[in-house]
Design goal:
alpha/beta; TIM Barrel
C-alpha cells in the first residue's frame, strides 16, 4: 500500500510566508528558506512553495527566493505561481525544484499542461485547483462547454490566487487535467482554507473518485483528526497544511504519529 504524504505549504507574498483565511486577511508566518529547512528536518514528506500574488500581479515567480529555499532542501519541492510558459517551467526545474504547479496558466491555455508533461514528464507537473462552492439556486447558464458550470455543478474553479471566478466546474476540470497529462492535482477548498474546521471532504472525495492520478487535499486543516478524515473519507493521497504547522499548533511528528496509530500508512520520521 502506498504511503500517504504530509506536505507543509509555504504561501509566499513579497518574499515572506503568509497565511490567511479563505485567501484573505494574510498574516506573516516567517522566512521561506528558514521554514523550508525546518520542515525538512522535522520529517515532512514534501514541500509546496506558492507565490500567491505572482499571477494577480502579472509578474514572474520570485526565482531568487525559490533558489534560496531549494539550496538546503532534501525533500521534493513543488513550486507554483506566475508560471506561464515552457521556459518558465524549465527555469524553475533548473533552479532546484522537483515539480511545478500550474493554475491560472492552465486555465488560460490547458495545452500548456500537455506540452509540459510531454517535455518534462507527468511526474513534474502538478495542476493546482482553487475551488469554491457554488451557492444554492445560483443562476447558471450552461454554455455547453466541456468544463463549464451546469445546474448540477457543486464547485467552481477560481484563478489569480482565488481572485477571479472562471465559470469552470472543478470536478470536470480536474478530470480533464488528468487526461491531458497532469501528474497530480493540488486541490484547495477556498471555503475551508484557513478556518481550521476540517477539509472539504465532499469536494475532495468527488475529485479523488473522478481522476486516476494522486490528489493532494488542501484547505481547512486544524487538527491531526482532520488529516485522517481527508486521507480516509476524502480518499486523498496526500494532505497539505499550513496554519497548524507554521504557528506551532502541531508538529509533523505529532501528526504522523496520530495517523500511524489510526492505521494510515505513513513514512516514519526516522526515515526522513
Amino acid at each position: 500500500m502506498l504511503t500517504k504524504r504530509i506536505i507543509p505549504c509555504l504561501d509566499v507574498d513579497a518574499g515572506r510566508v503568509v497565511k490567511g483565511v479563505s485567501f484573505v486577511d494574510l498574516k506573516d508566518a516567517g522566512d521561506p528558506a528558514e521554514l523550508a529547512s525546518f520542515y525538512d528536518h522535522e520529517g515532512a514528506d514534501e514541500l509546496v512553495f506558492l507565490d500567491i500574488t505572482a499571477s494577480s500581479d502579472k509578474r514572474g515567480i520570485m526565482e531568487e527566493v525559490v533558489k534560496k529555499v531549494s539550496e538546503n532542501l532534501f525533500i521534493p519541492l513543488t513550486v507554483g505561481g506566475g508560471l506561464s510558459s515552457i521556459d518558465d517551467i524549465h527555469r524553475m526545474l533548473d533552479a532546484g525544484t522537483d515539480k511545478v504547479s500550474l493554475n491560472t496558466a492552465a486555465v488560460h491555455d490547458w495545452s500548456l499542461v500537455a506540452a509540459a508533461s510531454n517535455r518534462f514528464g507527468a511526474q513534474c507537473i502538478v495542476v493546482a485547483v482553487d475551488a469554491r462552492s457554488v451557492p444554492e439556486n445560483a443562476p447558471i447558464a450552461n454554455t455547453g462547454g466541456t468544463f463549464t458550470l451546469d445546474p448540477e455543478s457543486r464547485w467552481e474553479v477560481y484563478t489569480h490566487g482565488g481572485r477571479k471566478a472562471t465559470g469552470i466546474d472543478a470536478v470536470k476540470w480536474c478530470r480533464h487535467m488528468a487526461g491531458v497529462g497532469a501528474g497530480e492535482i493540488l486541490l484547495t477548498s477556498m471555503d475551508a482554507d484557513g478556518h481550521k474546521y476540517g477539509y472539504d471532504l465532499e469536494l475532495t472525495s468527488a475529485v479523488s473518485e473522478a481522476v486516476s492520478i494522486p490528489v493532494i487535499a488542501s484547505g481547512g486543516a486544524g487538527s491531526p483528526e482532520h488529516l485522517l478524515h481527508v486521507l480516509e473519507e476524502g480518499k486523498a493521497d496526500a494532505a497539505l497544511a499550513a496554519s497548524i504547522f507554521h504557528f506551532g499548533t502541531y508538529s509533523i511528528a505529532e501528526v504522523k504519529d496520530y495517523l500511524a496509530d489510526h492505521g494510515v500508512p505513513i513514512r516514519p520520521i526516522q526515515e526522513s
